[in-house]
Amino acid sequence: MQKTFNDTNGHLSPNTPESVIPDEDVGPRDFCFHPHLNIVYFCNEEGSSVTTYQFNTVAGTLRAMQTIPTIPDNFSEKNRCALIQITPTGKSLYVANRGHNSIACFYVDTNTGLLTSLGQTPTEPETRAFSLDPKGDFLFAAGEKSGRLVSYRVNKETGRLTLLETYVVGRAPWWILLTK
User: Fold this and answer.
1) 78-88, pLDDT tens digit by residue?
2) What are the structural domains, with CATH classification, of the chain?
3) What is the mean pLDDT of residues 134-140?
4) Strand ranges (DSSP E) for the chain?
5) What span, in angstroms and rounded, lies between the C-alpha atoms of 139 and 133?
6) Prediction pTM value
7) Among positive and negative, which fits the CA dihedral 161, 166, 171, 175?
């Protein structure tokens, strides 16, 4: 849904167009804004993909530019995307894959905002939650089914993840929040 906000009375009204409807039933779940461009990224839970949208800041509307898969073409088991985050530099974007049990890694073109897949980094079973630290140096991912938290170093040049350590944290971790 696309709405306009009245900052005097706090009401929302339908925008034109009122909805952004994907070409396929992909189930948009979570989103993040590019830190420097008028771009919004949605991870598609049912579509195992990411859609890049141009954000028109004047009209308050989105226009789809690209949809790219988060899993390999040859993966045939059930997968659902859970969370999406972008580094503070806007050069790398990550999506949690539940089913493929990986973090999908993407290079972000800093001029256009379009994505290039860097592949997937294996992680804990049913990773629903992950978080980048505020500087974008580290990524932590929690395995809902394993009760473990995994830490990775983020390569700021390539966006690739390097496994650092695994921690036992208890049953069904669902959320991670890293702060300064």
Assistant:
1) 999 999 999 99
2) 3-168 (2.130.10.10)
3) 96
4) 3-5, 12-14, 28-33, 39-44, 49-56, 61-69, 80-86, 92-98, 102-108, 115-122, 127-132, 138-143, 148-154, 161-168
5) 6
6) 0.92
7) negative
